[in-house]
Input
Amino acid sequence: MTVERIIIISAWVISLIALFVLKRLSWREKFLLFIAVQFFTWSLGLIYVEFDLIDYPVRDFSIATSVNFTFHYVLFPAIGVYFAAFYPARRSLIRRLGYNLAFAAAFVAGFLLCEKYTELMSFKPLFIFILIMSVWTSFNSVNHYYDWFFRKQRLQGDAFR
Output
């Protein structure tokens, strides 16, 4: 078994265990967040592959799609659930920006490590900036959708009232 297959299997196991361990949200909330993040990441992943910004030489379903199913349909959505679960909504703007930056930086760092040391993906240098913006936009959009859907009053001020 190659290192790439071990990483893919580990991503599945870690993502599923992480969702079962998370007690901060109900299953209904976790499921909504999970499929909402899947919508963003799957759509963007397909666009990135079509415009040759990223390539996945090793992937789960090589005949069905050019996108890495595990990353875009399991791992990234699981991380998005954690993003929303621990979002510091009632904290200062600096704290919220730091939280956003930390999640985006960690995700991009993982992508960079996978690109450098494995054959899971290869992308153009400009793609890093696009990835940072899309991760930030996806997580925050899903977080706002979560607040709206469950009528959460987590945000400061009169937002979503």
Remarks:
- The chain has five helices and two strands.
- The mean pLDDT is 87.
- The longest strand covers residues 54-55.
